[in-house]
């Protein structure tokens, strides 16, 4: 099994990335984000007895420090400073109006004892743990029903030490679903920036049922063969911004979700108004950006631009299945550069994986108004593998200004989809060959441009100015 990432690996990645052809202005290794919020009160974790030797368990120190800082929540909030050192800890909770700040050489280490990650109830939109029936282990850094949370620093590191969890998963010895590295639930006003996240046991950053979330200038790393180590998974959340991130993990770099089958349909909280910009990365088990497969509460108004994926199995993947219900609509991908990617665009209409046997197989998802514009790629095996659902609605799929150097003799394979295309090389499959005339603009990229300018140059601008 491939080893976990270490700080030496991180430094090598940063050195490569700063000089590579994939570098872009505003990458996580080139500038810092200032949240604009100054906390009038600050303490250091050592004031509560923490020892940064990588051996001493500091869970109580983190819990006590945050409990103390909660008393300043109505006085402008407070900051918990984590200095240089290796700070071993189990799961701990955040509070509102808090900044968790990591120094440049600070490393928060997740305990390798599963007892230090308590078991909590499953998410209501999932009905059970994602991997196993019943509860799930709580994330290393957790928060619920919070306002104004900042997790940031001078490129410090949060390391989940996930290899032991990956072994338990592969060996089938888990009793509960693995924990995330960071999970915030039912929270508003979240900023995560200027940090490196390593070796998550499961998904790395998971905002669920949240509003106004900004993730910027972060690096997320896990071995390419590590199971289900997604990078950032916005889940039933709205007004989410993900910018200038480098992600290399064992599954989807970003996966947009909204609940699982009948539980997601019943909970009915969509994931909407999501902006992704300046994403660079690779994955050999997932996609650069995925939607689903848990999308039963609906996913809409997603705008992703300036994306660069390399040495990956898929670039974009929309995953769903009969029984999911819900919808994926008004999705816009633009300015995407690919190098050595097996499948550029993938629709998976038979993903399967149901929480139980109570789902309705007649609950078919509706996929519509999905636009792919300004794609360029070299060493691509398949341009598009678009598998809809018989009797389902995969409509108004639009391809525009796409040039892919494809090595396969069958560059496109489509079933149960309908759409339009303009200036696409190689020529797309028959169901997508109808030309994009002005009367089709409302079904293609024009509506996405309108959404981008109206939503994020006004309401969304407040989020992006944090």
Automatic annotation (TrEMBL):
<dbReference type="InterPro" id="IPR006626">
    <property type="entry name" value="PbH1"/>
</dbReference>
<keyword id="KW-0378">Hydrolase</keyword>
<keyword id="KW-0326">Glycosidase</keyword>
<protein>
    <recommendedName>
        <fullName>Pectate lyase superfamily protein domain-containing protein</fullName>
    </recommendedName>
</protein>
<dbReference type="GO" id="GO:0005975">
    <property type="term" value="P:carbohydrate metabolic process"/>
</dbReference>
<dbReference type="InterPro" id="IPR011050">
    <property type="entry name" value="Pectin_lyase_fold/virulence"/>
</dbReference>
<dbReference type="InterPro" id="IPR000743">
    <property type="entry name" value="Glyco_hydro_28"/>
</dbReference>
<dbReference type="InterPro" id="IPR051801">
    <property type="entry name" value="GH28_Enzymes"/>
</dbReference>
<dbReference type="InterPro" id="IPR012334">
    <property type="entry name" value="Pectin_lyas_fold"/>
</dbReference>
<keyword id="KW-0732">Signal</keyword>
<dbReference type="Pfam" id="PF00295">
    <property type="entry name" value="Glyco_hydro_28"/>
</dbReference>
<dbReference type="GO" id="GO:0004650">
    <property type="term" value="F:polygalacturonase activity"/>
</dbReference>
<comment type="similarity">
    <text>Belongs to the glycosyl hydrolase 28 family.</text>
</comment>
<feature type="signal peptide">
    <location>
        <begin position="1"/>
        <end position="20"/>
    </location>
</feature>
């Amino acid at each position: 099994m491939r080893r976990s990432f270490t700080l030496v690996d991180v430094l090598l990645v940063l050195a490569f990335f700063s000089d590579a052809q994939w570098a872009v202005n505003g990458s996580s290794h080139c500038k810092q984000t200032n949240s604009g919020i100054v906390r009038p009160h600050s303490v250091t974790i050592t004031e509560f007895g923490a020892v940064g030797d990588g051996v001493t368990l500091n869970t109580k120190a983190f819990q006590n420090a945050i409990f103390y800082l909660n008393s300043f929540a109505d006085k402008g909030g407070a900051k918990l400073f984590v200095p240089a050192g290796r700070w071993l800890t189990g799961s701990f909770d955040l509070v509102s109006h808090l900044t968790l700040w990591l120094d440049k050489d600070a490393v928060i280490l997740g305990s390798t004892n599963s007892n230090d990650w308590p078991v909590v109830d499953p998410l209501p939109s999932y009905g059970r743990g994602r991997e196993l029936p019943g509860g799930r282990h709580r994330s290393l850094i957790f928060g619920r029903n919070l306002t104004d949370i900042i997790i940031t620093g001078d490129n410090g590191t949060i390391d989940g030490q996930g290899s032991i969890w990956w072994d338990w998963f592969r060996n089938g010895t888990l009793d509960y679903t693995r924990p995330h590295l960071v999970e915030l639930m039912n929270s508003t006003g979240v900023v995560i920036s200027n940090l490196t996240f390593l070796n998550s046991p499961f998904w790395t950053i998971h905002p669920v049922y949240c509003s106004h979330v900004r993730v910027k200038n972060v690096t997320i790393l896990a071995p390419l063969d590590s199971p289900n180590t997604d990078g950032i998974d916005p889940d039933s959340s709205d007004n989410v911004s993900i910018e200038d991130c480098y992600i290399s993990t064992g599954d989807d770099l970003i996966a947009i979700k909204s609940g699982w089958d009948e539980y997601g349909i019943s909970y009915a909280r969509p994931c909407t108004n999501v902006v992704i910009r300046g994403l660079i990365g690779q994955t050999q088990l997932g996609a650069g950006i995925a939607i689903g497969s848990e999308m039963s509460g609906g996913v809409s108004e997603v705008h992703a631009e300036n994306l660069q994926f390399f040495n990956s199995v898929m670039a974009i993947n929309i995953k769903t299945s009969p029984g999911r219900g819900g919808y994926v609509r008004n999705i816009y991908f633009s300015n995407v550069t690919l190098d050595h990617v097996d499948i550029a665009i993938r629709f998976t209409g038979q993903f399967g994986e149901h929480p139980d046997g109570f789902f309705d197989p007649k609950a078919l998802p509706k996929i519509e108004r999905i636009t792919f514009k300004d794609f360029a790629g070299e060493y691509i095996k398949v341009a598009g593998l678009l598998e809809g659902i018989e009797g389902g609605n995969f409509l108004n799929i639009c391809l525009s200004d796409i040039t892919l150097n494809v090595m396969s003799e069958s560059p496109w394979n489509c079933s149960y989809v309908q759409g339009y295309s303009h200036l696409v090389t190689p020529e797309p499959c028959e169901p997508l060959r109808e030309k994009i005339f002005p009367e089709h603009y409302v079904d293609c990229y024009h509506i996405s441009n309108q959404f981008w300018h109206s939503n994020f140059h006004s309401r969304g601008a407040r989020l992006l100015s944090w």
